[in-house]
Amino acid sequence: MNNETLLKNLRNIPDFPVKGIQFKDVSTLFKNPECLDIMTDELKEIYQDKGITKVVGIESRGFMEGCILAHELHAGFVMCRKPGKLPAETRQLTYSKEYGTDTIEIHTDAITENDIVLLHDDLLATGGSMKAAYDLVKSFNPKKIYINFIIELTIEGLNGRSVFPEDVEISTLMKI
Ligand code: AMP
């Protein structure tokens, strides 16, 4: 897709949060009403006929468009959060990162076997954090899981899509 307006408005911050990282700052898309409309319209177009019942947003940049899209699809919105943030009973998953481990949580009553789930985050890099969210949601045994990112990083050596099973439909609005 690579909408010109989105590409033009996405801000790149070199060396943030550490030297060598080209940080894609989606705050410039969210503050722009036209970009917010474009993202929401494109996502609605992709998912409106899929029967999505829950959109799961990944903390924290996956919460914004995830929740807007859930509203547009007449689906519910579920937060996938870092440990200790969700107040009720949670199911957790701990996964390995380049250095050490990380844990994510979802409320145990947030997803059922009848749900068709769309997982959403702002950006796909290595795919590690979304794969953990996918595995956690999969453990609830929903009918189907879709995955979406606003941005897919396609720089050499980074193939984030490869960490997901081949039959999982993954969409991205921008490849950069
Ligand atoms: P990964 O697990 O490697 O796919 O990383 C994806 C997560 O890290 C997303 O939640 C992104 O918000 C964040 N992230 C990783 N790399 C970048 C980047 N270059 N610019 C902005 N966010 C990034």
CATH architecture: 3-Layer(aba) Sandwich
Low-confidence stretches: none
Number of domains: 1
Distance between the termini: 11 Å
The global form is globular
Largest sheet: 5 strands, parallel
Determine and state the CATH class. Alpha Beta
The SSE string, one letter per element, is HEEHHEHEEEEHEE
The strand order across the widest sheet is: 4-3-7-8-9
The pLDDT mean sits at 97
Helix content: 25-40%
Cα radius of gyration in angstroms:
16 Å
Beta fraction: 25-35%
By secondary-structure content and strand pairing, the structural class works out as alpha/beta
Give the strand tally.
Answer: 9
Q: What is CATH's topology name?
A: Rossmann fold
Supply the number of helical segments.
5
Give the distinct bound molecules: adenosine monophosphate
What are the main properties of this structure?
two-stranded antiparallel ribbon, binds adenosine monophosphate, 176 residues, alpha/beta, 5-stranded parallel sheet, single chain, Rossmann fold
